[in-house]
Amino acid sequence: MRSVTLFLTSSLVVTCFLSSSSTLAQDVLDSSVAKSTASWRAGFDVVLAKPLYSSNPALTSSIQPQPQQFSIEHHEFDFDFTSSPQVWLAVETIEGFGIRTTWWQFASQSNSLSLQPANSGFGRVEHPSFGNVDISAITPTERMSADAELEAYRIDLELMRRVQFGSTELLFSGGLRFASLEQRYLAHLYSHTNTLAGAIDFQQDVRGIGPTMALATSRSLTDRWQWDAALRGSLLVGEGEELLRAGEDLDFPNPQRTDQVGYRDQLLPIADIRLGTTYALPEFGPIEPMIRGGWETSWWGDVGNSSGGPGDLGFVGFYLGFEGRF
To answer: Quick one: which of 55, 48, 81 has its CA closest to 310?
Structure first.
């Protein structure tokens, strides 16, 4: 039922957007054919990004060395910088009206974490809470490992209006964004014989569609060099899904297994900021090639963390790419 509701809502939003923008889009296409003055822009970026969570617990280790002393240490997942692709294609009239589509995808896996209880015999290694599931390590001969996976992508379809003020250029755009975020938490408990004794596999997906608006500006520094800045905001409406599969006492004849599925409505705000520079290379026939690079960050609000807890997610990194105008 939730999937049907999401489909109907998305269809309504898309229909409204296409209906309201059909006149402008037709003008762009008519102008392109009639005047043959439309230009195409296409590009490819390699984005080197690192995900940053407000909180993303992996494991918790505790020890009681003395009756009146208790020590707890929280361990969080750590992700490295990962390269991700971004491509876009746009057509624009000489009057500054245009249409653009953009696609970006990111996939990464955290550094694996493995812990054992203290040798004193009064230690414990625990995972985040997953209801009544408990595969904690409680003896020094046991070992617990944890991993996290993350995948995100977004697609934008928008109308543009470019305005020139001397050496400064402003680009206004607005349209639709579809975004998806998939997170996964994996934990395994191994006995003293290195036999799998417990396992947790938790996955959550968030996806949504909604309006997006952006303002970009650029200012020429020389005939070939310019600096760029862009700010974008999106508010998506969609659905979230959670799936938990767990097994306890897997090294015994009759292990306990847990399977849970949950759904929720999701409001997904996203903010993007980009600062960079562009350098125009010598023209190659009808193509105006350019290289560009800089810094960018993205904030995804209230998407939770790998283990299903509350929190926000950010992406921060650098980009280097190529753009061609023809």
So the answer is: 55
